[in-house]
Design a protein that fits this description.
The complex is a heterodimer of chains A (about 90) and B (about 170).
Chain A (H helix, E strand, L loop, with lengths): L3 E3 L7 E5 L4 H12 L4 E5 L5 H14 L7 E4 L3 E4 L3 H8 L1
Parallel strand pairs in A: 2-3
Antiparallel strand pairs in A: 1-3, 2-4, 4-5
Chain B lengths: L6 H17 L3 E2 L3 H18 L13 H4 L9 H8 L7 E2 L1 H4 L15 H13 L8 E4 L5 E3 L17 E3 L2
Antiparallel strand pairs in B: 1-2, 3-4, 3-5
The chains are: A alpha+beta (about 90), B mainly alpha (about 170).
The structure holds iron/sulfur cluster.
Chain lengths: ~90, ~170
């Protein structure tokens, strides 16, 4: 899977599964960037075929509903949806 | 964020839809910029998939599988009832409009891919015989007993393909 990298301060390993068309995904990215965090993201809707299947399977492990945005923190916790309070707690 | 689409096109789409939905008792979110971005995304999806797939869900590209997430989706009304907003935050209840409740992201009601496949099969298997079949609009719940569902739902105006066999 090819993730896009956003430069910033290292606040742990942050991996965001998102859709390019989704409003809450955009708000999540804006918030993470405001908080200056370094992270990787992938727009699953822009992938096709096997790449998309691979991304969906990887996300399913964390979130069987396969909903967006899902932020995986340090390979330990998943934050599903635009959970402003939790994101600020972790990255603030 | 207006790649490929003029702000005028989006403005017209927004104004037209707003009038229609308000006439049927629905409200868009008061965050106009957010709403316009979602509408633009719906237009992008229409171009990409051939139907107005929900911008906050992963569309499969197969219309049959995505009927439940064509905007307005099957989950809008239950979500408005329980959380005062639809999943994307495009539609909100009067409470949020009046500022009595915070406008934020809500949990996903649509079942995951594995569960959806199971329910689709169950729906296919269940059939009972009546003089007329009863059809249910999956968006607003309107029921009618006739050979075929109507071309357009008389209540919420979605197309025939959004009806399911109820009885
Ligand atoms: S009603 Fe809301 S959640 Fe449902 S498809 Fe439209 S924008 Fe998405």
């Amino acid at each position: 899977m090819d993730f896009e990298h956003v430069k910033g301060e290292n606040k742990g390993k942050l991996v965001l599964f998102a859709l390019s068309t989704c409003g809450w995904c955009k708000k999540t990215r804006v918030l993470m960037e405001e908080l200056g965090a370094e992270y990787d993201y992938i727009y699953v809707d822009l992938l096709q075929g096997e790449d998309r299947d691979e991304a969906v399977e990887a996300l399913k492990v964390w979130n069987p509903q396969v909903s967006f945005p899902t932020l995986i923190v340090n390979d330990k916790e998943s934050i599903v949806g635009f959970d402003q309070d939790r994101i600020m707690e972790i990255l603030g | 964020m207006t790649a490929g689409r003029s702000s005028k096109e989006i403005e017209n789409y927004y104004q037209g839809l707003k009038k229609d939905i308000e006439a049927s008792g629905y409200n868009f979110s008061p965050d106009e910029e957010f709403v316009k971005e979602l509408l633009e995304s719906i237009l992008i999806n229409k171009e990409r998939y051939g139907y107005e797939a929900c911008p906050c869900r992963l569309a499969s590209g197969n219309k049959e599988e995505d009927l439940d997430i064509i905007c307005p989706c099957d989950y809008r009304d239950p979500d408005l009832g329980e959380y005062d907003a639809c999943f994307c935050g495009l539609y909100v209840s009067g409470k949020i409009l009046a500022g009595e409740k915070r406008f934020t992201s809500i949990p996903e009601r649509r079942p995951g891919p594995d569960e959806r496949a199971k329910t689709m099969q169950e729906a296919k298997d269940a059939k009972i015989e009546f003089k007329f079949p009863v059809w249910r609009c999956r968006v607003c719940g309107y029921l009618c007993a006739r050979d075929e569902p109507p071309e357009i739902c008389p209540i919420c105006k979605v197309g025939k393909e959004r009806f399911e066999r109820f009885m």
